[in-house]
Amino acid sequence: MSSRNGRQLHLLAFGNVRAGGAWRLPGVRNGPANQLNTLVATAKAAEAAKFDAVFFADGLNFGPKATWAHKSTEDFEPLTATSYLAAVTERLGLVVTGSSTFQPPYHLARQLLSLDHLSSGRAGWNLVTSFAQAAAANFGERGFLPHDERYPAGRRDVTSSEVTVAFLGAGYRHRGSRGRNLQ
């Protein structure tokens, strides 16, 4: 919807959220997040409500020393989940968190490009650099980069990913200082 000054409000639904006490409210769907019907219902409801995209956060830090207590094995891996949703939605953007810390940029770029192709250009990437000790342990690492080194490393990974995407035949369009979109 445009306003008089040409600005628009874009809506993004959070795809993997659960409210602990929602079971008390009649009519609220608050089943396990790893049920296909719950995943599809969430995406279809967002699309029907004219949301621009659905966002699936991810954390690599499951384990005894996890940073967030709510992280569980119930959550679908976002690229797999959104690849399925690409087939059952038509216009809804599919945004996933992808950490560049523990996987090579080429591999991550290929996965995101596959989602982009499967969804006919509706993929989005929330780039993060992992910081949790539990995440490092899950990848057989002893630690992670210090804060001041993580973001330059993330920028290098984005550049490497852009090269991979260009090499594989897709283009991208630069969107200001904070974003790029695959085309």
Automatic annotation (TrEMBL):
Residues 32-152 form the Luciferase-like domain. GO terms for molecular function: monooxygenase activity; oxidoreductase activity, acting on paired donors, with incorporation or reduction of molecular oxygen. Keywords: Flavoprotein, FMN, Monooxygenase, Oxidoreductase. The keyword S-adenosyl-L-methionine does not apply. PANTHER family: ALKANESULFONATE MONOOXYGENASE-RELATED, C2H2 FINGER DOMAIN TRANSCRIPTION FACTOR (EUROFUNG)-RELATED. This is Luciferase-like monooxygenase family protein. It comes from Mycobacteroides abscessus 21. The lineage of its organism: Bacteria, Bacillati, Actinomycetota, Actinomycetes, Mycobacteriales.
